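#structure-requests
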Amino acid sequence: MPLDLESIRDQFPALQHSGIFFDNPGGTQVAQSVINRMTAYLVDHNANHGGAFETSRQSDAVLEEAHAAVADFFNASRPEEIVFGNNMTSLTFAISRAISRTWQPGDEIVVTRLDHDANITPWVMAAEDRGCTVRWVDFHPEDGTLNLESFQKALEGRPRLVACGYASNALGTVNPVGKLIQMAHEAGAWVYVDAVQYAPHGPIDVQALNCDFLIASSYKFFGPHAGALYGKYEHLEGLTAYKVRPAPNDPPGKWMTGTQNHEGIAGVLGAIDYLEWLGKTFGDNYVEKYNDRYQGRRLHLKQAMSAIHAYECELSRALLEVLEEIPGLTLYGLRDVRRLEERVPTFSFTMKNRHPRNVAQMLGDAGIYVWDGNYYALAVTERLGIEENGGMVRVGAVHYNTLEEVSRLREALGKVLGGE
């Protein structure tokens, strides 16, 4: 059955406010199940790890369940392949140090100009430390898609690692990650995929992708501020972690340095609870598509993300129509309605004679929340030649947004254009 927006929005307390949340690429609102899980953790079993008493055992059980839940979300082969941390950036800096210990001077790595800087700078700095060469992959400025010829050329030096994004947080482009991973593996490289922007919009299967690492942040898929990293077990087991001596020597504990944000991890479990509910409730159309490959919660999560993707194509179409009709508005990225499958509903633009912060402020005053600037996708705004002019305005929808909210965006942009 199609998504029932009223019942879905009822799951999000923040949506009962008057604002319209189109700031979702920077962070979504949390479901009530997230709040329930975090509150229950802090009230009922708030304790440190590994104690010989009841609340510590209960705490550990919650954390183990969260590992299993995210493994289901990514379709990892085992819960031990999931590592939690503060956020994607911190986790990537940590794992980049460990991976780069295996590099030698003269080795090459590959990064792309379409990525968030958190999937660029950690690798560039690691390469500098190890005397390695960085190869950059370009994108096509006219439509925001990755330049596959540039990617192929970057692989000629047989790099040790390729860092790429699943979807661009600036332009909304969904990369052909399966193809990129295959190409990189044929060149002998490990692949580190930033799925932060893609995770709230479509199903992820790390086993089908065959990526070496994949990372997301739960606050982008309706949970709290926490990061979750998938790594092939043999990599997580074989690499040397920067950790204290009493810490575990096996994954995932060897990678989760210090006391973790336990209540945050409980909240990640709450986000998976919500998506599982959505799949059970609205995912009937996708049972046949997936039931030969997934069972239980894994099936429900794939149903959920497919139902979300189908509805968000409607939102993308509506947003594209609105933004294309505004005089003086320059829209970046894919604009072809026949290629909506190649993007998520994240749209960035500039308006003639209007600074992006001014546009965002005027929309904010109208109760419509959007971002402006470079959103840490600095390589994108530099490549487009707009960084020095304040970057872009970014409007990003998720499945709890409505077509009526898109109409209100149209009205507000008209007022911005008129200088009201």
